[in-house]
Specification:
Helix content is 41%, strand content 8%. It has 201 residues and is an alpha+beta fold. It folds into 2 domains: 8-34 and 43-89 and 188-199, Ribosomal protein S4/S9, N-terminal domain (Ribosomal Protein S4 Delta 41, Chain A, domain 1, Orthogonal Bundle); 93-179, Roll (Structural Genomics Hypothetical 15.5 Kd Protein In mrcA-pckA Intergenic Region, Chain A). Strands 2-1-3-5-4 form a 5-stranded antiparallel β-sheet. The two termini are 30 Å apart.
Length: 201
């Protein structure tokens, strides 16, 4: 399945945020990449700001353009505020849920765990990263994968009360989605209204 495999620090520096997780390069060189990155740049146009927010959301959640547009169209058909529904659909992706539960240290690692069949949903092994987790679904670690170093390290000391829409069972090494997250509970710094405006042109 296609995914972004390019330089991550460069993208993080472009947006000025550690969107792929902790980044030593971005922390050390906190200005845009390129020959003139440290110099002041001209004001970004309205379209440029809208495009920037869309790209930031795509890179943050690890989805490509076609997937992102499909999610936006689904959000447009769903009752509610378009931008908020879009973020909720992105949050409900299986790879993102695995990341939010603390089973993996990054979304990329979570995606890999899903694709390598280490994750179960409602007791069944599922290897589709884009699967939409629904309220009531239980996402956990496959029995024979519970001792994997990457999973043990990620779960060690992880604060499972960070996300009120998820409930963690330490004994079962599984989490349950209690409800769809409200916008104020989603910590990502994304101006979703700009994305709606971009696609509404």
């Amino acid at each position: 399945m296609a995914r972004y495999t390019g330089p991550k620090s460069k993208i993080a520096r472009k947006f000025g945020e550690p969107i792929f997780g902790e980044d030593k390069v971005q922390a050390r060189r906190n200005f845009p990449p390129g020959q003139h990155g440290a110099n002041k740049r001209r004001k970004t146009s309205e379209y440029g700001m809208q495009l920037r927010e869309k790209q930031k959301a795509k890179y943050t959640y690890g989805v490509l353009e076609k997937q992102f547009r499909n999610l936006f169209e689904k959000a447009s058909r769903t009752k509610g505020v378009k931008g908020e529904v879009l973020l909720q659909l992105l949050e409900a992706r299986l790879d993102n849920t695995v990341y939010r539960l603390g089973i993996a240290p990054t979304r990329a690692a979570a995606r890999q765990l899903v694709l390598h069949r280490h994750i179960v949903v409602n007791g069944e092994v599922l290897n589709i990263a884009s699967y939409s987790v629904k309220p009531g679904d239980v996402v956990g670690v496959r029995e024979k994968s519970k001792s994997l170093e990457v999973i043990v390290d990620a779960l060690s000391g992880f604060n499972h009360s960070k996300y009120p829409w998820l409930e963690w069972d330490e004994t079962a090494k599984a989490g349950k989605m209690l409800h769809i997250p409200a916008r104020e509970d989603i910590p990502e710094n994304i101006k979703e209204q700009l994305i709606v405006e971009l696609y509404s042109k």
